[in-house]
């Protein structure tokens, strides 16, 4: 159990981070449906935001990742408040999802989820990569603070906001 204060407020925010299990699949899909479009639409447009949910937060994708032990979730008061999913790009381990309920941002949960993912990596892992849309300046600033260094940018054919920024750091 982790605790993080709220910038001097007397309210403590408590969460538990654990491996996702099969019973979590629909909750994770619902979390994606509730938060991803709203997050991405102003950054990359409605159509691209919809594609993110349809392509990456569907039951088949989530079920497969959970079954392979690639997803961790954060819960607070019984609610799902964060999701992190790793995978691979070639031989590199990649953090493909790191999303928080907006009410739980800015309280240390994002770094705690990264730490949970890192603890699950093989001991000989040399680096952890992450990718984000160039239009997502908030993600860029967060990953900078978490010591992920830009390695390359994959240009989009349609919009510079859809360029994909690849970063890496030592675990």
What is the overall silhouette? globular
Question: What's the number of helices?
Answer: 5
Helix content: 25-40%
Residue share in β-strands: 35-45%
Q: Indicate the low-confidence ranges by residue numbers.
A: 3-11
Distance between the first and last residues' Cα: 22 Å
Largest sheet: 8 strands, mixed
- Spatial order of strands in the largest sheet: 1-2-3-4-5-6-8-7
Q: Give, in order, the helices and strands.
A: EEHHHEEEHEHEE
Strand element count: 8
Radius of gyration: 16 Å
Mean pLDDT: 91
SSE-based structural type: alpha+beta
Structure description:
The chain is an alpha+beta fold. 35% of the residues lie in helices and 35% in strands. The protein has helices at residues 25-44, 46-56, 59-67, 109-119, 137-145; strands at 2-6, 9-19, 71-76, 79-89, 92-100, 128-133, 149-154, 164-169. Strands 1-2-3-4-5-6-8-7 form an 8-stranded mixed β-sheet, with helices on both faces. Helix 4 links the parallel strand 5 and strand 6. It is globular and about 40 Å long. The model is unreliable at 3-11 (pLDDT under 50).
């Amino acid at each position: 159990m982790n605790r993080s204060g709220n910038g001097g407020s007397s309210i403590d925010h408590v969460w538990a981070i654990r491996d996702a299990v099969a019973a979590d699949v629909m909750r994770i899909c619902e979390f994606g449906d509730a938060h991803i479009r709203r997050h991405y639409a102003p950054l990359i447009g409605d159509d691209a935001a919809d594609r993110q949910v349809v392509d990456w937060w569907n039951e088949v994708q989530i079920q497969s990742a959970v079954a392979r032990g690639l997803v961790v979730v954060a819960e607070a008061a019984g609610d799902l408040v964060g999701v992190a999913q790793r995978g691979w790009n070639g031989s590199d381990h990649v953090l493909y999802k790191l999303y928080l309920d907006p009410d739980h941002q800015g309280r240390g949960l994002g770094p705690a989820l990264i730490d949970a993912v890192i603890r699950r990596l093989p001991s000989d892992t040399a680096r952890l990569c992450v990718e984000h849309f160039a239009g997502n300046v908030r993600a860029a600033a967060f990953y900078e603070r978490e010591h992920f260094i830009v390695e390359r940018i994959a240009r989009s054919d349609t919009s510079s906001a859809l360029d994909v920024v690849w970063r890496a750091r030592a675990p």
